[in-house]
Amino acid sequence: MATIKLENIGKTFPGVEALKNINEEIKSGEFFTLLGPSGCGKTTLLRTIAGFYHQDSGHIYIEDKLIDDVPAYDRNTGMVFQNYAVFPHMTVFENVAFGLKNRKMPNDEIKKRVAHVLEMARLTGYESRTPDQLSGGQQQRVGLARAMVIEPKVLLMDEPLSNLDAKLRVEMREEIRDIQRELGITTIYVTHDQEEALVISDRIAVMNAGVIHQVGTSWEIYKNPADVFVASFVGETNFLEGEIRGGGAEGVTIIVGKQAIRAKAPAEKLKGKNIRLSVRPEEITLVKNKSENPNSTVLEGKVIKNTFTGPLVRYLVDCGEGTHLVVETHKPEQGSLIEIGTTVFLNIPINSIQCFDPDSGERLR
Length: 365
Ligand code: ADP
Ligand code: MG
Known about the structure:
Bound molecules: adenosine-5'-diphosphate, magnesium ion
Largest sheet: 6 strands, mixed
CATH topology of the largest domain: Rossmann fold
Number of domains: 2
Strand order of the largest sheet: 6-7-8-3-9-10
Radius of gyration: 25 Å
């Protein structure tokens, strides 16, 4: 097991600053995920750690050992790629044994190790098949077995599930998580899929344009986003913009359209200014009859869309002046869908509203 330390890592390709001053420490045995949109620098960072790219600035340590000048094959990392990267002309056994043969390991030992990882990857019995006789999920398990058979200190995975269909992706992410827990191997996992990241990770680094915006547990990232980018990229949310009118210790009043919303924000600094609010669809309760509550704001609106997805109902509610809010409910109180055109009341708890500086995008606390 190994810790990984990234110190001021910078990397520029012609015309693109792919990584800007990345600082992070990944703990021993941790499942650490790089999450961000396509092109944000995830692969570049992973390949730099693996040693396939060399950073322009900064240092990388594995287990406190500086590895800047250690070539990729000596870094003791195993890599799993998006496109499986299995050898098509070799059997499953040969694919997995390849790295060990290169290391001139005795045949008996190779057989033992390959059998062990194939069992872990649920591929026992498939030893003599070639990749074209395997499903996508099985090919990716071969990729995983091949990375793990060399018993690396660090496992690096670059969007390993993105070529699989949706159902298999959900199954495989559980498997990968189970195997990682069992081995306790320090893992850096790359994905652009926020749900996958939330489910699989001990901690997540949310990246955009070569910068890490926030690092935290799934809970922290989702419930306490550091800025507008994280709030919008991870999960779904409603953004509103309004002007702060006044407030005190219990909160501020923000005018959105013609209605007032109460939230917690530093009022003194912001009076008369615009502010950005975010509230998740599942935090809002929708009722047909107005009921006041000291800990929440009630907005009036009209249902303009209702969608039944099975486990939940989604409403789009027009609160006037261009303010549209998405509301999600798992237990619809009404017993049936509320029809389009119905006047409804939205109950928004003060504590569920997050405020952001409209200029910097940073969270106001
Ligand atoms: P991600 O994996 O998050 O989609 P990448 O790390 O692949 O992002 O890319 C980050 C940025 O660097 C992108 O703008 C991409 O076009 C650029 N880039 C990546 N690899 C190279 C390369 N080998 N040569 C030139 N530009 C590259
Ligand atoms: Mg990539």
